[in-house]
Amino acid sequence: MAKITVNGESQEVNLPLSLTELIKQNNVEQPDMVSVQVNDDFVDRTEWDGIQIKDGDNVDFLYFMGGGCLI
Fold this sequence. Notes:
This protein is mainly beta. Helix content is 10%, strand content 34%. It has one helix spanning 19-25, and strands spanning 2-6, 9-13, 34-38, 41-43, 58-63. A 5-stranded mixed sheet has the order 2-1-5-3-4, with no helix packed on it. β1 (2-6) and β2 form a beta hairpin. The termini are far apart.
């Protein structure tokens, strides 16, 4: 078991584990609309399958939302 942090919360995961698998395990809604940082570095979507999560990694799923003006 490896300990990682996902969006500020500690998780224990079994390795090996790709970033794509971690996204699925965390039931990320609309993965096509999320940006991912691993250890403060943004990861291009085309690299998700090749990124292997390691013990101690810090992963953030970032959702960008648009807003409007309330009149």
